[in-house]
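Translate sequence into structure tokens.
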Amino acid sequence: MKFSEMSFDGNILARGFWLYVWDIRSSARRCLYVGRTGDSSSANASSPFRRIGQHLDDRPKAKANAIARHLRTAGIEPTKCTFKMIGIGPIFPEQTDFARHKIYRDKVAALEHQLAQHLRGRGLEVLGVHSTPKSSPKGDIADILRIVDAQIQ
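Result follows.
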């Protein structure tokens, strides 16, 4: 019989606009996944904790399971991996209307792109596509990079 455990800081339950990095390791490979909260089609900005189950949903009709799909495409079985998630946020609070939501969603998407590019520049394998953002973020990504660099060795 195997034993597993999970622990987390309760802040990860807070809704809002977050960035997160998953450090995923199998017996033969290490890869990262960079993501964000803040839906593209609604004014919802859920917590990273909520995204954990969605990202690894193994149901055949699951739609939000990007990590599981990327891992399987790479020939890696998710049940054979260890996962560590670093969440940064909430960077911005959840918004009440879609027009304001899109402003913050796009800012966080730009930060997500910069973070993924930074990690690739360090020679790390980052799963997925992080499209060039519509606009560059207002503000400095330096604090985010400092946090992630300290956690991803």
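Note: The CA atoms of residues 16 and 93 lie 5 Å apart.
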